[in-house]
TrEMBL record:
Domain called Helicase ATP-binding: residue spans: 27-195
Species: Vreelandella boliviensis LC1
The EC number(s) this enzyme carries: 5.6.2.4
Annotated Helicase C-terminal domain residues: 217-368
Keywords: ATP-binding, DNA-binding, Helicase, Hydrolase, Isomerase, Metal-binding, Nucleotide-binding
Cellular component aspect of the GO annotation: bacterial nucleoid; cytoplasm; replisome
Lineage top rank: taxon: Bacteria
Family: Belongs to the helicase family. RecQ subfamily.
Database matches in SMART domains: DEXDc, HELICc
Protein name: ATP-dependent DNA helicase RecQ
GO BP field: DNA recombination; DNA repair
Length: 671
């Protein structure tokens, strides 16, 4: 019997008669053994590019995805089509994870999906070395590149993991990669230019409108949207905003006007978010007012409007967000109600992520000290380290990955620092279930884990000392194994928290000052790139030539005749015919309202409260960077200790340029 062709699998398993866009080119290259990159417009069918080859490849396809919601949607699709796929994620119990691993080892599983963070776990990496893997798939692969948006530091290690697990080829998938990012991705994984497949970014059914934001932007939105929200024929709409409070305020204003809108943001609990998303996907709720917490993994074909009430974070974010409109191919509108009033907030978010030089220096001092210990092990509780160095968690993660790339540290394993338990049977009954040395061991556990009301905390040092006194092995590993076994049997509930990562210090004698300066310069370079990205986005919206063409060219797409979605561009050279500029309405974005000059009185009134508390609690005044963060409302770990939010002056200048505030504070501190 001849082997089944990919075309046959496409029809028999997935129910499609033909490939779309560049799907066939990608599938053929992967099945020919080439590492490949698929740069497809949002909604152009990237997932099939790994799902179909996985059924033809001899071993496991390992998919790294940045978001649990993306995994769950794709797993549900694969389950409906009878494909053996599973994920390992933090929501699972140990039995489920163990079962998935066994299925992978036995060869039953064709696709395994994990987050990139899972690969930091040494036990998981040990498991992967026991499994033959045909293909590594990197979803949202632009996260690999520091030149792209949504850079994820852990993605930088993926090329090392490919070598470590002896995976012969990779497939990179993304919808938002500029030529620079594509080149960077290709270089990291040695992907030949011929194996980079781009479908083109032109969407003939999307109307791209830019409307200068009026003074009453809320009423402007209501006037535009209300005619499309007649009862029984509401146009499914996503409205993107920057801040959580804006989402709540705008949703409430729309509801007052009879438009059934719901706010969606990270401040809601996960159950609320899931229910709001379910209602929107099912057509029960026609309008979502959301921060960018909403949208990843959303595949609703009939979204008719995507509105940017505030400026998006970048051209890439804009492209990704408008890409959720009109996936059914029908006409849809993408409206940007743009003004420069929100620019300062976006810029300040960028400056807020740049750590202090002193924090980087402190981090390196701690690593150097750990490197002098006999085992060179460095235990890291991320939140504690963040507090001690005054570096926010995300930039701190980035620094740790950079230090791995420099060969200073290497991750070894992770464990939970704290455990507590609650018995479901009498402790004496638990002891009676064992005999001999095991009974003595369990008796030690029971006697040395005191219960306060319902719960008892596990003190590993106390258990270790008790074990030494009675010559019983009460090592941490044995205690955890026993407690997990008791939980599996239903005899108790065990809860763990405070994940601790253990690193080995590979180069203990590095030059702290030299490396601190290098890392700080890297952070400043990143800051500059992000600010330039915001300026590029403003230039797009103020374009005097076709916005659709400018957007496509940003992503290196100059072949408008080969559109993935419908007809090519209008015969008039370089014009789409369905954007603001082509309608004859190029815009100049209104400036933010002018701010009065900062004065000596402002400094005394707003800066002094933090300076006084800082001297009282820390023993010295804050530096200009720390003071500017406070005045612009940008969080720092030390602000929790100082209870800075309660002080007069916190966030008083959040609408001002961070650089202006920092220079102003620098002058006053120096005088």
């Amino acid at each position: 019997m001849p082997p089944i062709s990919p075309q046959q699998t496409l029809k028999d398993v997935f129910g499609f008669d033909d490939f779309r866009g560049g799907q066939q080119a990608v599938v053929e290259r992967v099945l020919d053994g080439h590492s490949t990159a698929a740069i497809f417009a949002t909604g152009a069918g990237k997932s099939l590019c790994y799902q179909l080859p996985a059924l033809h490849l001899p071993h496991l396809t390992l998919v790294v995805s940045p978001l649990l919601a993306l995994m769950q949607d794709q797993l549900a699709f694969l389950a409906r089509h009878g494909v053996a796929a599973a994920s390992i994620d933090s929501t699972q119990d140990r039995d489920t994870t163990r079962e998935v691993m066994e299925r992978a080892k036995s060869g039953e599983l064709k696709i395994l999906m994990v987050s990139v963070e899972r690969l930091k776990n040494e036990r998981f990496r040990h498991f992967l070395r026991q499994v033959q893997i045909s293909l590594l798939v990197v979803d949202e692969a632009h996260c690999l590149s520091e030149w792209g948006h949504n850079f994820r530091p852990d993605y930088l290690k993926l090329p090392d993991y490919q070598r470590d697990f002896a995976i012969p080829q990779v497939l990179l998938l993304t919808a938002t990669a500029t030529p620079t990012v594509i080149a960077d991705m290709g270089e990291k994984f040695a992907i030949a230019a011929d194996n980079v497949i781009t479908t083109g970014f032109y969407r003939s059914n999307l109307e791209l409108l830019v409307a200068p934001a009026m003074e009453d932007r809320q009423q402007q939105l209501i006037n535009w949207l209300k005619p499309q929200m007649q009862p029984g024929s509401e146009a499914p709409t996503i409205i993107y905003v920057t801040l959580q409070q804006t989402a709540e305020r705008v949703a409430k204003a729309l509801a007052v006007q009879g438009i059934a809108a719901q706010a969606y943001h990270a401040g809601l609990d996960s159950q609320q978010r899931d229910e709001i998303q379910r209602q929107f996907m099912g057509g029960e709720s026609p309008c979502i007012v959301a921060t960018i917490a909403f949208g990843m993994g959303i595949d609703k074909g009939d979204i008719r409007n995507v509105v940017h009430y505030d400026l998006p974070k970048s051209i890439e974010n804009y492209s990704q967000e408008i890409g959720r409109a009109g996936r059914d191919g029908l006409p849809s509108t993408c409206l940007t109600m743009a003004g420069r009033d929100g620019l300062r907030v976006l810029e300040n978010f960028v400056y807020g992520d740049t750590p202090e030089y002193a924090g980087i220096y402190r981090l390196l001092e701690e690593i150097a000290a750990a490197g002098q210990a006999p085992d060179r092990q460095w235990e890291v509780l991320l939140n504690t380290l963040s507090r001690d160095t005054n570096i926010r968690p995300l930039p701190l993660k980035t620094l740790l990955v950079r230090l791995e790339m420099h060969g200073i540290i290497a991750p070894r394993f992770a464990f939970l620092a704290e455990y507590r338990l609650r018995y479901h049977i009498e402790p004496s009954e638990l002891v009676n279930r064992f005999e001999g040395e095991r009974a003595a061991f369990v008796r030690l556990l029971v006697d040395n884990i005191p219960i306060a009301r319902t719960w008892g905390s596990v003190d590993f040092d106390r258990l270790h000392q008790a074990g030494l006194a009675q010559q019983v092995d009460t090592s941490r590993a044995r205690v955890i194994t026993a407690l997990e076994y008791f939980q599996d049997k239903g005899w108790l509930t065990l809860e763990g928290k405070r994940m601790t990562d253990v690193y080995e210090v590979c180069q203990p004698n590095f030059a702290i000052e030299t490396l601190a300066s290098q890392l700080y310069d890297d952070c400043l370079t990143r800051e500059r790139i992000e600010i330039e990205r915001l300026q590029a986005m403003l230039a797009l919206f103020e374009s005097e030539s076709c916005i659709t063409r400018r957007l496509a060219e940003h992503f290196g797409d100059r072949t408008f005749g080969n559109s993935t979605f419908g007809a090519p561009l209008d015969p008039v050279q370089g014009r789409c015919g369905h954007c603001s500029v082509c309608y004859g309405h190029p815009v100049r974005l209104p400036d933010a309202p002018p701010q009065p000059a900062l004065s000596e009185a402002d400094f005394q009134r707003y800066a002094t409260p933090l300076i006084e508390r800082h001297i009282e609690q820390v023993g010295q005044p804050p530096n200009a960077q720390r003071l500017a963060h406070f005045l612009c409302g940008l969080t720092m770990p030390i602000f929790t200790l100082l209870k800075a939010r309660s002080l007069n002056g916190f966030a008083v200048f959040e609408q001002r340029a961070y650089t202006e505030v920092r220079e102003w504070t620098m002058r006053h501190l120096a005088s």
